[in-house]
Amino acid sequence: MRRIHSKLFTPGPTEVRAEALQAMAVPQVHHRSPEFSVLYANVQTKLQRFLYTEGPVLLFTSSSTGAMEAAVQNCVQKKCLNLVNGAFSRRWHEMTVACGLPCEALENPWDKSIKPEQVEEKLATGAFDAVTLAYNETSTGMLNPLEGIAEVVREFPDVLLLVDAVSAMGGVKIEVDRLGLDVCLAGTQKALALPAGLTVCTVSERALARAEQVKPKTYYFSFPVMMKYHKKNQTPSTPSISHMYALDVELDAILHEEGLERRFARHVEMAELVQAWAQRHFSIYPEQGYWSKTLTCVNNTRGISVKDLNNKLVEDYGARISNGYGELKEKTFRIAHMGDLTKPEVHGLLCTIEAVLGL
Ligand SMILES: *Cc1c(COP(=O)(O)O)cnc(C)c1O
Known about the structure:
Number of domains: 2
Radius of gyration: 20 Å
Distance between the termini: 26 Å
CATH architecture of the largest domain: 3-Layer(aba) Sandwich
Number of helices: 13
Largest sheet: 7 strands, mixed
Order of helices and strands: EHHEHEHEHEEEHEHEEHHHHEEHEEEH
Helix content: 40-55%
Strand order of the largest sheet: 2-10-9-8-5-3-4
Number of strands: 15
Oligomer: single chain
Low-confidence stretches: none
Mean pLDDT: 97
CATH class of the largest domain: Alpha Beta
Bound molecules: pyridoxal-5'-phosphate
């Protein structure tokens, strides 16, 4: 096994910049001290700018899955419509079932995006009061049409839109308030380019009002409990303070060093580079028009061994990509182009894959 670091071109975890790693190594402050509240408030202001929202952005010390569970536990009263077209959106359905909440899955083939008309038809029945969506399906490299789906959901004032933006946030623009997203969450180890262990989660006034009615059967993941402390610039339990320092550093880099628009443009450029390459040598898994800006899921049309390719990349070149997810293993492979990766780095990876495969 190669002992030196392999550069991650995987759709989470992703590469973490040295400044963010260093920020995690600072001495701890006490989570009930004024110093902590200053850190919390600073991060809060930056997160609100980053997500185009004036509402609270809660910080869960858990991976994204925890906050997904929080979203359904706090926001589903009548019945939840789970939009499923991949492994992570399916996880949200399985979780809603596991939580004992009334729900129904609207399932598409995994290479087909969720269409706003499909959502409208379901919501028109009046049966639902919440909808879950994986904006960027990391298992398939599919960017679902959030704008159109959000527009449909806004026509139904009693329906909350819960968005898993895990591999999108930090790579594509998400205007939380303009779109009227009720919950929008992402763990920090994807396009936010930090280690795993912290999840940011926006909550709308409507979501908070719903949570008060629902009385969620969870304490750690309760929005009302989180809000009680949020108002004091604190969290109910001891958070990963180290992550918060790193997030503060990364948000400075995003907002001030690179700038949001330039960051989003860089992701588009990296996606175009990989997707042109994938079409030249293979083909792309999801239907055209919905390709992700942060990762590409490539059809293994050449029948290569993805496992062998990845082993060679790791052993000989110090780079790692991802095999297909679940049933798509060996049938597809995934190249991430998110977070702090640069176009030259992605270009280098593609040249390396060409060399390994003799393309
Ligand atoms: C990675 C991922 C998850 C799960 O995230 P964890 O942080 O591992 O809990 C959920 N949804 C999407 C879209 C993801 O990419």
